[in-house]
Known about the structure:
Pdz3 Domain; 7-stranded antiparallel β-sheet; 4-stranded mixed β-sheet; alpha+beta
Amino acid sequence: MTTAQILIKVAQLMLSLSILVIWHELGHFIPAKLFKTRVEKFYLFFNPWFSLFKFKKGDTEYGIGWLPLGGYVKIAGMIDESMDKEQLQRPPQPWEFRSKPAWQRLIIMIGGVTMNIILAFMIYVAMLWVWGETYLPPQNLTYGLSVGPLAEQIGLQNGDKIVAVDGKPVENVSSIPYQIIVNQAHTLEVDREGVQVMLPVPQGFIEKLVKSKGQGFISVRMPVIVDTVLPSAQFLQGRLEKGDRVISLNGQPTPFDQEFQHAEKGMRNTVVTLGILRHGRDTVYVKARINDQGLIGFGKRPPEKIFQFETRRYSFLASIPAGIHKGISSIGSYLQQLKLIFFSKQVKTSDSLGGFITIGSLFPPFWDWQAFWSMTAFLSIILAVMNILPIPALDGGHVLFLLYEIITRRKPSEKFLEYAQIAGMIILFSLLLYANGLDIWRHLTGR
């Protein structure tokens, strides 16, 4: 991956996190103001020791920190990550969080999670209205699937079409690995040259699939067709033309992209002979040089120009319930993933956790607004679900103590809340170090 592509991924991650953090903190800020609770600070990113930018308006200091691990609002009279004990030693003031009724404090605390869910719904509604839903159904795979070593272990073959997972029809080819993992699939129904074949998913396979992150499993089987010829291309004999289909490399048949990539390996800075099918009938040969990056000098025709993708279109009014339904389904799917990570014997927790490197890698190495907003919506759901977990220092921890107070009519002592906050911060900091440490270890070891 080039430096420019890495920077594009980082830029998308930073913009997405900024949107999510600001929106989340507004969820605390707005109800706090409505209930006349003083908000002392509103920060994007954390600012230990110094801030990159800040200004004060009214009682609130607004700023941008230098540590991009989230953000915060500092609400007067509340035990939070600032651990401001001095303020709590003074008598409660009417404008402080601790002086407000429990129901108002509860609304302030669940505001961030609520806003993240609303944001995800809004993004999904907008995406369905603007772009609709585009997907590739298995029946439109002209050449079937290209299978890797992992897929071969369960009996899949090149050209197969997976049409159902545990009896549930597959609508979108790209969702197949996800369906297998989340549903802990036991069987795959395969269309093999018109014959229906049932393949069992063996014990331990899902663990391998999670660990591989889908690599070596399945991909769309497609021919190598020249879409664009790059100015940097070096031809020693003949030339490539748009629409040419590459059928061999140095005499080795390459009917599909998988075979072409395998034949091309280890051929940097060499001259190769390409067998070309031109106009669907003429076979010609072209000599070209592969550069030091392993590129011959042409762009391949993308899947959307080869296969018939299906698109569902929505009017603005129709996109609203459809977007909300998509958001609810995404929440359910993420909860299933969490259950899988922590309770399934087939999936190791360490294989599924990841930090900022893992998150950043999910963005494409080019700027695509549709992919960006789709990823941002899903991250918003992740942020909402993770924040509502009943862990001290998270919103869910505060909510848990408030519900206890409402039910028992007994408020936990400030000393207890202080110790709980410290314990929660230790847990969260440990998880943060562990997840990002895994990322670094995977990067260094190539796993």
